[in-house]
Amino acid sequence: MNLSLITKRIVFLVVVAGIWQGIYALNIFEDIIFPSPLTVVSSLYEGFADGDLVTALGASFRHLFSGLVLAILFGTVLGVLLGKSREADETAGMYLVALQSIPSIVWVPLAIMIFGFSEAAVVFVVVLGGTFVMALNVRSAIRSVPPHLLRAARTMGVSGVSQFFRVEIPASVPYFMSGLRLAWAFSWRALMAGELLSNGPGLGYSLRYAQDYARMDQVIGIIIIIGVIGAVVDQLVFSKLEKNVMKRWGIL
Amino acid sequence: MFLEFEDTGKRFGEATENEFEVFKGVNISIENNQFVSILGPSGCGKSTLLSMVAGLEDTSEGTIKLEGQEITGPDPERGMVFQQPSLFPWLTVRENVMFPLKKKRSKKEAEARAEHFLKMVHLSSSSSRYTYELSGGMQQRVAIARALAMDPKVLLMDEPFGALDEQTRHILHRELLSIWEETRKTILFVTHSIQEAIKLSDRVIVMGTRPGRIIADFSIDVPRPRARDDENVIGWEKHVMELLEKEIDKVLKEELDNESVSYN
């Protein structure tokens, strides 16, 4: 990234904060629904200083990590099954698409009825949020292995199980990476939906707590944290990983 | 005979109504250590015939035998180079060449073998690179090294230089001939280029189309290297061109009819 790009982005941020401060200074809205940028920053600082936000973040990442790992696991198994077996795909494939289209917040009541107001309920929602999109991508990954690579492998005496492990799996890595990125994005959204309605701890729970106490500065602060984490993880981890893989695999 | 086609035929489709006969009654005997080209217009089934030797396609009729053994499936004794290099992008050049050797030879032996054949195709300096860093011609050379590393009895090449530019193709022709002179592998080379077939081969088998069949079989006894402007080479090219013109017209006419364009 070049310097002028960074400068442009920082200037943009400063301008937005300036406009925000300007509107605040006009005193059109009550402070309780329109805090100044400085109040938001200081409430963020307080949150981190007294450890509340640190605990919440830790809990959120714990939920996300366990949920995402399970989602990747289930999604991969499901996707490989549907990708390899025409029978399985014809039978269950379309239901997977249907399940994928259900917004994750819809699973929250179900999760609470099964697991109660517990962290398990949150993890359950995260798992459902990531599994289906992962499965769909792994299915395409397995299906889109170039047939000429399989033919070449066969002429070298590599077929069956060893072909699956030595050709099909590595050849599916690019789509698998896209699946990973989407699974993360969907799980992250599901996590917030689950935590908002949970009994904590977690970032989503802190957000609702702030709402209950009419702390708009905290609400905005936590929304900013959620956005920043989402963007940073996507840009610095998954997009980068995906791009590198695509390049190596000759797709970009 | 080394490689023998006996009444070999190929049909696609099972039911009688949509059955399509590619060719039938193909009889060819190929001697060991020869460079043989199969030349023909698109649709004559030359690539299918080669895939059958590779064991990637079943024979519908007759048999294909290598050293008396009937071919029933793919085997490393028959190495194949495709029109697409078909290299594995997650492996380095060296690892690609080692791919068929895994489990069959020790790692050290496989590495040494890979280096040897990469040297033969003049790519030893690129052995640690990944395939996306290579040009099309270099990728195809890796594919040739990979096929040779298995030490196959016969090397099958399916229009291996068809996607390359003229310049690169010429360089690879020279390289292939020197490899062939060094290893003396039997090569079965499929192409639609008359020039390429005559430039490279000891023997050119010409196939016609609709129905696919062998229409001619020549031994090219012009000494190598064969210059483009060599009288004998030009003579052969003209001769084969005349033979094929009728076949190519047939294909064109059928394609135009399919487009329901009036030809007359």
UniProtKB/TrEMBL annotation, chain A:
Q: What is this protein called?
A: ABC transporter permease
The uppermost taxa in this organism's lineage are: Bacteria, Bacillati, Bacillota, Bacilli, Bacillales
Which Pfam families has this protein been placed in? BPD_transp_1 (PF00528)
Note the CDD domains from the entry.
TM_PBP2
Q: Does the keyword Transport apply?
A: yes
Membrane topology per the entry is:
Multi-pass membrane protein
**Can you cite a GO biological process for this protein?**
transmembrane transport
Its localization reads: Cell membrane
Q: Which organism is it from?
A: Salimicrobium jeotgali
- Transmembrane region(s): 63-82, 94-115, 121-142, 219-238
Gene3D superfamilies assigned to the protein according to its UniProt record, in alphabetical order: MetI-like (1.10.3720.10)
Give the family this protein belongs to, as stated in its UniProt record: Belongs to the binding-protein-dependent transport system permease family.
From TrEMBL, chain B:
* Family matches, as SMART domains: AAA
Q: Which GO terms describe its molecular function?
A: ATP binding
What positions does the domain ABC transporter occupy? 3-234
Identify one Pfam family in the record.
Answer: ABC_tran
The keyword 4Fe-4S is annotated on this UniProt entry: no
Extract the CDD domains matched here: ABC_NrtD_SsuB_transporters (cd03293)
UniProt xrefs under InterPro entries: AAA+_ATPase, ABC_transporter-like_ATP-bd, ABC_transporter-like_CS, ABC_transporter_ATP-bind, P-loop_NTPase
Entry keywords, A to Z: ATP-binding, Nucleotide-binding, Translocase, Transport
Q: PANTHER family from the entry?
A: ALIPHATIC SULFONATES IMPORT ATP-BINDING PROTEIN SSUB (PTHR42788:SF13), TAURINE IMPORT ATP-BINDING PROTEIN-RELATED (PTHR42788)
| Name of protein | NitT/TauT family transport system ATP-binding protein
Q: Which organism is it from?
A: Salimicrobium album
Taxonomy, top ranks, is: Bacteria, Bacillati, Bacillota, Bacilli, Bacillales
